[in-house]
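Budget justification, computational time. The allocation requested in the original proposal was used primarily to generate structure tokens for proteins on the priority list. As evidence of use, we reproduce two of the resulting records. The first is shown immediately below.
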Amino acid sequence: MPNLVEPSQCIEQAIEIFTACYSPSDQVYSHSCLWGDFNFCLNGLFEYEVEGQLHLAPPSYGLWIPPFTEHNSHAIDDQPIHYVAIRLAPALSKQMPSQTEILHVSPFFRALVEETLATKDHANLATYRHLLWVIYDQLQSAPKHQHYLPQSHHPILQPLLQQLRAPEYFQLSLQQCLVSTHLSERHILRLSQSELHMGLSEWRNRAKILYAIQQLKQGISIKALSFALGYQHSSSFIEFFKRYTGKTPTQLRD
């Protein structure tokens, strides 16, 4: 294994992994750490504020926060949230991004973390150490993004984004939403790529996914949610949802 931990440390002293639960009223106040943090939700949705920037992470993504980075977080679901925190010692954190980033959480990584947690106190030490190294390797190679749902203070784009993420507008097409801007689609596309580093269609799809996750946790039916998001058939919504989360709405809700 690579020699990335201090001479006096073993890997289990350089990587801490644990789970915790947040109730809807819980909030973590602003703080920074000597170690780096990777957090992802096993269920529910968290909002993080990192150095003044808001970050949202649905269950298929997690947030990497480098050492000495001030941040706070709170639950935005109406139900308890179960999440995993993986903390990396400074030497290991140096091999991770130096800025806050959203990391994709694959089904393999989720299963790997669950297996590591299950064997933490029951497997032999060699097995546990090996699993920690695999987790670290997966964190380094995971696809990374600056934001899952980036925001903008641009005078044209900001009110448009507020409209695009509002549930009452989900049944309208993107073209119908753009009418109020009095700008060409090409101009809006250039603006969104410059400010958000993605097209408005992709941004809106992500906003719909975040909304859908919250509604599923509150017990809304898949048929009603499909209609609310502008889909005439539940099968189309299920396909869309699975493409973004890796699970069907029923699997995620259960």
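The second record produced under the same allocation is shown here.
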Amino acid sequence: MKTEVSPLFIVFEGIDGSGKSTQLARLSDRLTAAGIPHSCHREPTDGPVGRLLRRALSKEIDLDELTLALLFAADRSEHALLVQAELAAGRTVLCDRHLLSSLAYNAPDLDGQWVHSINAPIRSRVRPDITFLFDLPVDEALTRVSSRGEGRDHYEKREVLQQVRDRYLYWADQLADPILRLDASRPIDSQTESLIQYLKDQHHMPL
């Protein structure tokens, strides 16, 4: 049975291994059980620019950091139109990564304010109603990634991930967006209940 609630744009952020994708899937299951229409997205997307980015991140092709930053913004620009359409149709959108990822992951030699500025026009199209930031110490994150048997991608070296985590925390304070920081070292069920309780309290979602 479909439940009528105001659609939300909900973003999940965190370094690799933080468990954000697991929490997105868990929230999706709760929304389905509650009869709340929704869709699950990710950035980079599966569109043409997003596919190019995924090839670069897997080191299939070599692109410099400036080019990557511009491509992330281009992919997000196209994605924002899709998110707009989903919200207008009454569907809540869950998204694995968004602007905070660009601000956190782009190389230290790129000016964060510049990265923010090239994304500014996109934010006039759509902005998250809430971003859940799953914060985790880097060593624990890399242990989790290694236990999955996955190769480390372009951004999964320890020193780089530490800088990424630091920038996540910095920009979470700088952005004028609703952001809830969650301790990703806590038990999975506890994290899920925290974000569910937030949605109940702040957005009156019947979950």
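A brief technical remark on that second record: Residues 65-88 form the longest helix (24 residues).
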